[in-house]
Hints:
The structure is a single chain. The protein is of the alpha/beta class. It folds into three domains: 2-37, no CATH class; 49-129 and 233-271, D-Maltodextrin-Binding Protein, domain 2; 132-229, 3-Layer(aba) Sandwich (D-Maltodextrin-Binding Protein, domain 2), CATH 3.40.190. It has ten helices and eleven strands. Strands 1, 2, 3, 4, 5 and 11 form a six-stranded mixed β-sheet that branches. A five-stranded mixed β-sheet has the order 8-7-9-6-10. α1 crosses α2 (21-38). The radius of gyration is 24 Å and the shape is globular.
Amino acid sequence: MLYNLRGFYAPLLCKRRTFHRRSCWLWVTKLVCIIHFLMPCYGQSMPVKIELAATDWCPYSCEQDPKEKGLVVDYLQYILQQHGHSLHVAFFPFSRAVQEVNNGNKFGLLTAVPAEAPNLLFTQQAVMTYQMCFYAKQNTAWQYMGRDSLKKIVLGGISGYGYGEPVDSFVNDASNKNVVQLAGEHSLGRLIALVDKQRIDVFIADINVVQWQLRSSTSRPVKEVGCLATNPFYVAVSPKLAWASAFAALLDDAFLQAANIEWLHQHKLKHFQ
């Protein structure tokens, strides 16, 4: 293979008289060797079909929406198609999605943060950002004012999610009894219903996900009562896969390319506003 590549490039590159013919052929040989060893980094050893696990987290990843697959799903499909790969996303409750990857049934997670699956390999570049906010009934007087304010309410969330500090450490503290974490499907809708029925006081969720959930609602059963800082989220892949590092490197490079960033921006404006 190396010989064939050298035979192809050398006549093209060594025509110039400024090159000594033998020196040129040696230079081309070294160049072809570099290309040969770098090529696997961009997909030769990866499967054509990339199988990732996700949760229904629309508008980022949409299982129930009949019109949209999700912003992250579309973005990764767009990127992977440029490199000859396809994307298949299987939906599970989030804790189950992590388990599917850990058990080797799926290659990785479509969206995640390191706190949610610290044993996986994450891209260094973020796919997008998210912002967790608190929601309560319209007539509530409570406002999020830091960790201590959480002690005054019954807080709802979704099992396995990483919300960011100080919420993560608060909900994972066994001494905090007023925390309700749901598992299973339709968790956000169930959290909204629990607030409406006064089973919990407040729940925490991503601001875009809540807005998407309520976009067709004629009423506003909940209102925002404070937010955490905006944080990045990533794609995660099982480090057990031989091509895991190459896959992460491919995505890191793609997430930095101006053309891809612009495509994402225009796609978001067209489909997810």
